[in-house]
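Q: Hi! First time doing this. I have a protein sequence and I read that you can turn it into a structure. Is that right? Here it is:
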Amino acid sequence: MSLVLPIIAPIFILIALGTLTAKLKLLPATTGDALSGFVFLVAVPTLMFRTVATADFGEVAPVSLWLSYFAGVVPVYAAGMVLARRLLGADRRGAVIAGVSASFSNLIFVGIPVVERAYGREGLDVLALIVAIHLPTMMTASTLLLERAAARDAAQSGSESAAEPSIKRTLRQVVRNLSRNALVIGLVLGFAWRFTGLPLEGPHGEVIRLLAGTAGPLALFALGMSLPRYRIRGALLVPSLVTALALVVQPLIVLGVGAALLPPLWLAVAVTAAACPVGVNAYLFATYFKTGESLAAAVIVVSTVVSAATLTAWIALVH
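A: Yes, that's right. Below is the predicted 3D structure, encoded as structure tokens:
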């Protein structure tokens, strides 16, 4: 465990510094949003481009990695929905938000810096394979489930807007959104560059390296600055249970499945990614569909704080 603390401690110190900066109002309130925008639109896409373009993925089939990772996502997503329905009495949309909150790990703002520090460049290569399929899969599945849940909730309440959503129309909207997503564009361009066989060297390679190097520290600081905006309201029983699903159950399932399918480094990265705290996407979905905002906000804060301990434990176990 003492060998893992030097890896994890700087990560959560940076998050804490970002939170303290926001609390003390040392920077304008818009700074956190600007930093998050830079990280998501420039730094991380550049890092993913560089990683994919120059990665050595080895001979292991990525399908085994994806199966291992989503073996944890699917049951945890379902368990989160059941918890919300039975313990909170949430409507169907709120139940889906709970599922998203339990399973949508923060692979960008936390996963990338943690994996880079814990497993180096080789670990980032593996994480890039997870990120490449994680965002499109989670966005598509969650959007479809939320649209269907919204229609069923409306039908139950007798609303005039109770028509079942068109799957084709919803999928077109998801594809349109993903095609404009900077992270997806960075991954696609990285694979395209990889197929050209050209080296990523010289002045342009150095610019890419410098930009990519800002992703981890700025992501953590921006995450810290964003935490004070997520207000925790009401009882913490359900957020705590959802947090346990995200930080304990999900990586445990990934470990159990991946142990039979993956080499050690790939297994370690998959488990670490699954053990990351909940990302902001859960809150974005909640605000868009106007349900479950307090649950999503509480899970984001609680899971981020608790993950300082749980991530340390998981990395110590698989490192």
